[in-house]
Design goal:
Length: about 250
């Protein structure tokens, strides 16, 4: 039985004081939440959040990492640094990283490997654009994003990976994939992994991301292959994020 997981990706938002308000709002109302909860603040606020969540079931994650161990990579942050700041998770290959910062599937695979080497669970993000969906290429695109990671990590390591399906056309647009559209891709991802290892495929958590909010979360979580959510905008408001966490009960 898979456990639900809800991850808040704060992207490049927040200040020390707004994060204090958000985290206290979240921590005050955790009673009705049975899912795992992860928040991914900007790196500069990781330590602030880590200190706030010490006595809570909330985990903290990074939004990106560099795959090198250390060295002359100005502005970058390594897996070891994220681990040192208490991160249990890190987002890898978010579509904004792929489109705005030119990350390739090979980069993404290297980042997943680096994070696992330091005991951090990579949340591997995949998803197609509107044009790719309209051209009937969704499954080919998703496979092209998954396979290099499977090959680089080896099948067994996939047991320690979370996958997030985020259709690019649904991110920050207010347009959510229908529960059926999302579930179809989740089932395809699970099937692709099942060809390598059925047990890992049955146990891997596959999250949906793209305009998830308090109103649509329940219906999404009701789908068989949707195990949680990767939430952008709605994770910046404690009440909205809590409502999503409370809805995260798997069938
Ligand atoms: P929104 O929930 O704002 O659409 O963002 C989704 C996302 O990109 C989470 O990583």
């Amino acid at each position: 039985m898979r456990k639900a997981l809800v991850v808040g990706n704060w992207k490049m938002n927040g200040t020390q004081s707004s994060i204090d308000v958000l985290m206290h709002g979240l921590m005050a109302q955790l009673a009705g939440c049975s899912s795992g909860i992860v928040v991914c603040p900007p790196n500069v606020y990781l330590d602030q959040v880590r200190k706030l969540i010490e006595q809570t079931p909330i985990s903290v994650g990074g939004q990106n990492l560099d795959w090198h161990d250390k060295g002359a990579f100005t502005g970058e942050v390594s897996a070891e640094m994220l681990a040192d700041l208490g991160c249990d998770f890190v987002l890898v290959g978010h579509s904004e990283r792929r489109t705005l910062f030119g990350e390739t599937n090979e980069d993404v695979a290297m980042k997943c490997k680096a994070s696992l080497s330091k005991g951090i669970i990579p949340i591997l993000c995949v998803g197609e654009t509107q044009a790719q969906r309209e051209a009937g290429e969704t499954e080919d695109v998703i496979a092209s994003q998954l396979v290099p990671v499977f090959d680089k990590l080896g099948t067994e390591a996939m047991a320690s990976v979370v996958i997030a399906y985020e259709p690019v056309w649904a991110i920050g647009t207010g347009i959510t994939a229908s529960p059926q559209q999302a579930n179809d891709v989740h089932a395809f991802i699970r099937h692709t992994l099942a060809e390598k290892d059925l047990n890992i495929a049955n146990n891997i958590q596959i999250l949906y991301g793209g305009s998830v909010n308090a109103d649509n979360a329940g219906e999404l979580f009701g789908m068989q292959d949707i195990d949680g959510a990767l939430v952008g905008g709605a994770s910046l408001d404690a009440a909205s994020f809590l409502a999503i966490c409370q809805a995260a009960v798997l069938v």
